[in-house]
Amino acid sequence: MSILKVSIRQIKAARALLSWSQEDLAKRAAVSVPTVKRLESEDGELGGREDTVQKLRAAFDSAGIEFLGGSKGPGVRLRSKPGCE
Q1: Which helix (H) or strand (E) holds 13?
Q2: pLDDT at 84 > cutoff 50
Q3: Which of 8, 24, 25, 30 is the most exposed place for a label (fewest CB within 10 A)?
Q4: Residue 9 in contact with residue 46, Cβ under 8 Å?
Q5: Which domains does the chain carry?
Q6: How many H helices and E strands in the chain?
């Protein structure tokens, strides 16, 4: 099974859902603010070093963000809490 590729637009949308600034994301992912700013200044697929990508994804995962892909296109949502479906 391949890992879903995440776009910069999904990263920005996830931050918006969580009301996180770039500084908030950097702190929660243990990366520098300039790194987040540099990554978000691009368009397309999230790039950068693999360990940085993993840190960003882990920060979003722990906050309840789910990245979506598939036939309907890329997206992002907050995971449902158990029993709230």
Answers
A1: helix 8-18
A2: no
A3: 30
A4: no
A5: 8-75 (1.10.260.40)
A6: 4, 2
pLDDT attached to residue 32: 97
Q: Which pair of structure tokens corresponds to residue 48?
A: 């950068």
At residue 69, the pLDDT reads 83
* Beta bridge pairs of residue 66: 77
User: Considering only CA atoms, which of 19, 18, 80, 6 is closest in space to residue 48?
Assistant: 6
pTM as predicted: 0.85
pLDDT in tens, 11-25: 999 999 999 999 999
Among 56, 71, 64, smallest CA distance to 6 is for 56
